[in-house]
Structures are given as structure tokens and as C-alpha cells.
Model the fold of this input.
Amino acid sequence: MDGFGVTAAFWGLSALAVGSALGIMLARSLLHAVLWLILAFAGLAGLFVTLSADFVAVAQVLVYAGAVGVLVVFAIMLTPNSQTGNSETRMVGPGLFVASVVSGIMVYIATQTDWSTAARGDFPATALEIGTALTNRYLLPFEVASVLLIAAMVGAIVLVRAARDEPERRELAGEGEGEVNTAEAAGREVVAAGSHGGH
Amino acid sequence: MNPDYSLLIPEYILAVWAALVVAVDVMMPKLRRDVPAYLAALGALAAGIASVLYIDVNKGFEAIPGVTIMHVDDYTTYMRVLLCGIAVFILLMSAQFVRMRLSHAGEYSAIVLVATLGGMLMVEGTELITSWIALELLSFCFYTLVSFARRELRSNEAGLKYMLLGAFSTALFLYGLSLIYGVTGTTTYDGIAAALSNRGEDLTLALVVGFVFIIAGLGFKVAAVPFHMYTPDAYQGAPLPITAMLSTTSKAAAFALFFRLFTTAFLPAHEEWKWMIALIAAVTMMWGNLVALQQTNLRRLFAYSSIGQVGFMLIAVAAATQDAGSSLLFHMAGYAVTNLAAFTIIVVFFNREGSDEIADLAGLAERQPFLALAMVTALFSLAGMPLFAGFFTKFMLFVSGWDAGLEWLSGVAVVASLISLYYYLMVIRQMYVIAPRVPGRFRTPALLWGVIAVLVVGVFFLGIWPAPLLDAADTAAAFLFRA
Done:
């Protein structure tokens, strides 16, 4: 896949991806940032196509530009009380400096390094290759990823859902001293009330 | 040929047991709320016993012929047993705590088991993707566990900070891996080592930057300065037993991965990363111990003290010799036993008094002499006093650094170690010299009394007769350098 069209598409899509990434950073409203993010995902998907990774490109569009983007928009829309603006910060200067130094180094590396490159023949259907790798070479890491997803899901449920079991502090507190625990329990309630007020 | 799935039996036990604990908890709502923790402790024990069966097994898990993604050898076995042992003690000290202060008791214990599983996979991984996903498994479990006390703002804050910085460090780590892959064209440790030794004399900038990113990513996981910012908050906000787990499981597993990756895959490029790690080690040990001097909260004190300990352990990674490996493994065991003892004591005190301020320890020697004495043992061991575990393990570590040509680093370590003595002594002064604020003795629950006694005996055992464990650590480290 060489030729003028591909090269032009590569640079165009790169500009799109980097430009919308900048948009994410510069947008003042969280919602605008998410829209930029979706555009950046789409640009990346296009880049994957030019790099002959067709399956990854499709997955990128379906999962990231589609599902993840919509999910984030929903999350923002459904939490009306949260602040969605981008607050002021004094770190703009240092941030810009660090970012430009790092990106300068990365560009230098990308152009100067003698990369280990794969032979560029006709690519077979990449879905087949990825499927084989996942059920063969990467079977075990793939299974570990499933354990990870379950653990993350359980964790998310634990942190969000109302508990069916409650701590038994009061009950146990009755066994011995009273004063310290009561005072502390009162403190805890104040903290809990504070957390409700904060959001 | 199929890969040898029987190599991973301890991991299966942990995964199945974790599911079982949750199932039991769901099926039996009337169950007392400390039971899941005891049940899970049994599972960790079973996995530990299963791990012992792999002593002197030396076999790679070949996903496809020629691609070894995991390796079970004595190094793996040593760390597996250590991690399972830590999990048993963490769960034992959690039981009362969870009953009194946390909801979702079943899920809590299950996630502790899964975190241990992640740690074990990190130890045995010999392929970048496998190691990385194992690291993520451990990290995700910790993100949940740190914010488990969800009604306490401090726990929420700790969880959020830990997760955001964790995601950032993961991105750095992955970027580093991609650079290494780009230069070497492979993700297996063996393949990377071969590619690095064939590359000739030229210093590739991509490689160096890759190392920088990987060291930064792992530096976050082990809490090395300057990637330690989240540590004090996470330690203070997390439920207390999880703080203990952060300072033991998380560090042991991350260091095991760190050491295996750098001494097998990256060893041919030793000269290019040695100075980076040595520098970070020096800064970490000085910074951790100096900032610890100003702490008034016991957990923050232990956070900075653990940062200091990380500095000591990094000496071994920088040295990257077989001796350094064995002293790292040895120190890790001594450190884990000591820290678990200290945290079990803090848990008992916290369950009772609801406080973790150093000032509230005042007069502990009068109120509960056993706890105070055990705490002195733990603190002396951490400070590295003779007769206690910490002395010999640190000594070995410093000597291995010296032998590997890092004399200045060992010198800095001795100074940092002396500084640490001061703040450990301050805690002891609080317990023994200052009069108690609240009069009256209290009792330690029998089970935790036993746990503390076992750990204190362990501290003395390692300090007085270190030979058996040192031999084991030696054999284990030898496997990394057999080539």
C-alpha cells in the first residue's frame, strides 16, 4: 500500500488525530473535549487502515469512537451536578515546556532509530491473524485479561452499589470502652454528610 | 505440542478460590462477616502449599514452540510462597477489621486473593505482554481495595489519586515497552536479550528512552522517588490491612518483575540503565527517610519508611548480579515479615482505639506491653539493628551493591539507614517514655496475638539464623543467571 494517495491520507489523518488531541486539551468544556476525543479516535482508526491493520481499525471505530465515546457523553450528561468546565491552572507554562521537550525527543527518536521492521508483503486478513494469536500464543494473557475484567467489574460494583452487609461497629463498640468510639462514630457521620454535600 | 498447563496450579487455586469466596458470601447472607477472610486465608495457604511442590522445577510455559511466556523456576517458587504467605497474614489481620469497618466482606477477600494471583503472574512472566497484563491485574485490584472504605472521603481520595497516577504510569510503561519492541522486534525476554547483545556497540537513543519510560512506570508501582507522590495519601486513606498489603505484596511483586525483566531481558544493556536506577535509588532512600522524620501519622510514617526501603531494594536492581538477586529476595522476605508484624499491631490498636496517630501510641507499654514490645521488635528490624531480621538483610544488600561497583550508593544507603533510626526511635519513645493519654489496659484478641507472636519470632529467626532462607534465596536467584 504505497503511493501518493496512501501517503497523503496518512499525513491528513495524522494531522486530524494530533489536531483533535490538541482540541481535547484546549477545550474549555468537558463535553467539547469528549467530542474532540471521538474525532481523535476516528482519526486513529483511519491511521490503522493506512497501516494495513483493518481489523484494529474496525474495532477502533466500533469500540472507541462508538461505544466509549457515547458512554462518556452519557456519563457527563447524567451527572448534572458535577463541574464540567476546565479550571484555571498555573502549570500551563511548565506543562508546555515538558510536553514540547518530550515530543521533540520522541520525534527525534522516531526519525533516527534503526527500527526493526517486518517484511512488507501482502497482508493476510488481519482478523484471522489476531484470532490465531489470541487463541494460541496469547491464550494465557487473554485469560488473565478476563480475570482482570471480572475483578474490575466486581470492584466497580462494590464501590457503587449499596451494600447488603453493613459494618458492625456499633455492636462491637458495646463490648468495651464507649467514649472514644462514640466520638469517632460521630466524626464519621459528619464526614459522610460532607461527602453528600460535596457532590 | 500443548503448553504445560500443570505449571500454573497455584494460580488456578487462587482464581477458583476467589470465586468460591464470593459465591459462599452470596449464598449465605447470615454468615458472620469475618468468615470470608478466614476462608480466603485458607485458599492462600493452599496455593502456597501447592507452590512448594514446584521446588527445583525448571520449566518454561511455551505458548507456542519457542515462545516462553512464563517460567516456573526456583525464583518463581520463592516469590510465590512469599506472596501467598503475605496474603494469609493480610487476610488474618483483615478479618476483624472488615467485620467492624467495611461492607462487602466477601468481595474484599476475593479481591485480595486475585491481587495475589496478579502478583504471582508478574513474578513468572517472561514476555512483555504477559507481564504487563499481570501488572494490570494487580493494579486494578489495588485501585478497588484502596477505595474500599467508600464512606470515608480519605479512602475515596486515595483511590482516585492511586488510579489516575496508576493509569498514567501504565501508559508510560507501555510506551517504553513499545520502544523496546520497536528496536528488538520481539516481546519475549530471551529474544530481547539476544537482540540486545547482537546490536553491537552503538547506543540507541530509542532504547535509552524506552528504559527511562519502563523505569518510570515500574518506579510508580514500587513508589520510588520522584514517582512516589501518591504513596502517603494511599497509605493513609486505604483500609489499614490494605495499607499493609500495598507495602508488601505490591512491592514484592513489582520488584520481582523489575528484577527479572532487567536481569534477563535487559542485562546486555546494563551500562545504559545502571546509572539511572542507581540515581533513583539514592534519591529515593534519602528522600523517603528524611521526609519520614516529620510525620505525625503512623501510616504516613510507614509510607515514607517504605519509600526508603524501596531505595535500598533498588540497589540490587542497579547492581544486577546474582548476589544482589539473592540479597534482594532475602531482604524482601525480611521486610515483608517485619512490616506485616508492624501492621498487625497497628490494626489491633486501630480496631481498639480508632486512631493511627503516633501521639496516641503514648504509653502503649503500660496499656498493652505485648504490643509495645512487638512494635519495638518490628521497628528495630526496619531500622536494621543487629539480631533483628533487618540488619542482616540490609547488610547483604549493601555489600552486594558495593561488590558490583556501586560503592557510593552503599555509602548513601548506610547514611540513610542511620537517619531512619531516629524516627523509629521516636515511635518507641512515644510508647515507652510518654505517659498514656487514656488510662487502662486492654487485651489483644487471641488470634491476632498469635499472628503477631509468629511474625515476631520470624523477625528474630531471620536475624539470628538466616542461613536456611538465605540458601533458598541464593538458589532462587541463581536461576536468573544460569545462562
